[in-house]
Amino acid sequence: MRASRSSGPGGQHANVTASRVEASFDVLASATLSENQRELMLARAGPRVVAIAQDGRSQARNRELALARLSERLARALAVPRRRRVTLPTAASRERRLATKRRGAERKRARRPPEES
Fold it and tell me: What pLDDT digit, counting tens, does each position of 62-104 carry?
C-alpha cells in the first residue's frame, strides 16, 4: 500500500493530503500462491498487479476501493474459463439461413435483363 497526493475531488484540502492509494501485489514473492497459480498469474497479469484509487475524498475510502479493485483483478487473473461445449446449429436456424440465401438469389435473378428466346 502506498499513499500519495490525489488529483481527484477535495478542493484545497487535496493539495495537502495523501488521499490517493496504490495497492500492489508481488506475484513472485507471494507465499500464498501455488506454483500453478503463480504461472497463471504471471502469464495473465504480469509480475506485479496494481490497483489505484483516488475517487474518494479520504484515504480510508480510497484504500477500500483499491483493495477491492486489486482483489477483483487477482480473481479475474486466476479464474479458469469454462470450456465451450461444441454444439450444432438447430434445424430452424439452418432453414432460416437457407431461406435468406434463396431470397437473395431470387432478388439478384430479378435484376437480370429478360432472357431472349
Answer: 999 999 999 999 999 999 889 999 999 999 999 999 999 999 9
Distance CA 6, CA 15 (A): 8
Contact 11, 54 (CB under 8 A): no
- Give the pTM: 0.65
Q: Are 15 and 5 in contact (CB under 8 A)?
A: yes
CB 50 within 8 A of CB 66: no
Kindly give, in sequence order, each residue whose CB lies less than 8 Å from that of residue 25, ignoring residues fewer than 6 positions away.
48, 49, 50, 70, 74
Pick from 74, 66, 69, 68: which is nearest to 21 by CA? 66
Alpha helices in the chain (DSSP H): 35-45, 59-78, 91-111
Distances (CA, A) of 48 to 35, 70, 71, 78: 16, 11, 13, 14
